[in-house]
Design a protein that fits this description.
This protein has about 170 residues and is mainly β. It is built from 1 helix and 10 strands; from the N terminus they run ββαββββββββ. The chain starts with 8 loop residues before the first strand and ends with a strand.
């Protein structure tokens, strides 16, 4: 299956000196905009079916009100497709066999923020333990990894896009 990529075309603005159109590389229009679609829904596939988060750690302690300030790791899952995504998360450890798969459904054109410290089926993710995860989806999705470390009152928040495996 091939993944459609957005068609990017330069936007032309008249030159201040000559009045003739000139291309502006930083500006682009997508095919759905040229086609007159203004609903905000793109008929373009983005994302991948397999993602990896090579680093994970859930602190055992937190500071601040729960559940908002509970230390956690989150996989932010974006499903931009017209099909529901069936997502499986497998968690890997340095000293034992993997845990999972943990199953999550992400409806079409929706997002889900999955806190690893709330995953408990087939087993809870252990606290104060290094781990990594592989996320597989039935349709292409986008995955972002976020950590809130609130062990002290000066909180730390980290986020990054996960590694997308090429299909």
């Amino acid at each position: 299956m091939t993944t459609a990529t957005p068609s990017i075309v330069p936007v032309h603005f008249p030159s201040a000196s000559s009045g003739k159109p000139r291309a502006q590389a930083p500006y682009a229009r997508f095919a759905h905009q040229r086609a007159g679609k203004t609903s905000g829904h793109m008929d373009v596939s983005i994302g991948q079916r397999t993602w990896a988060i090579a680093e994970g750690y859930i602190p055992a302690e937190s500071t601040g009100p729960e559940p908002e300030m509970t230390s956690h790791e989150t996989a932010c899952l974006l499903n931009p497709s017209d099909e529901d995504a069936e997502v499986e998360i497998t968690v890997y450890f340095g000293d034992r066999d993997p845990a999972g798969p943990y199953r999550v459904a992400v409806p079409a054109r929706r997002t889900a923020h999955v806190r690893f410290n709330e995953l408990d089926d087939p087993e809870p993710i252990p606290r104060e333990t290094d781990y990594a995860s592989v996320i597989s989806s039935s349709v292409p999705i986008v995955v972002q990894h976020t950590r809130l470390d609130s062990r002290q009152s000066e909180n730390a928040l980290m986020t990054t896009v996960a590694y997308a495996a090429s299909s």
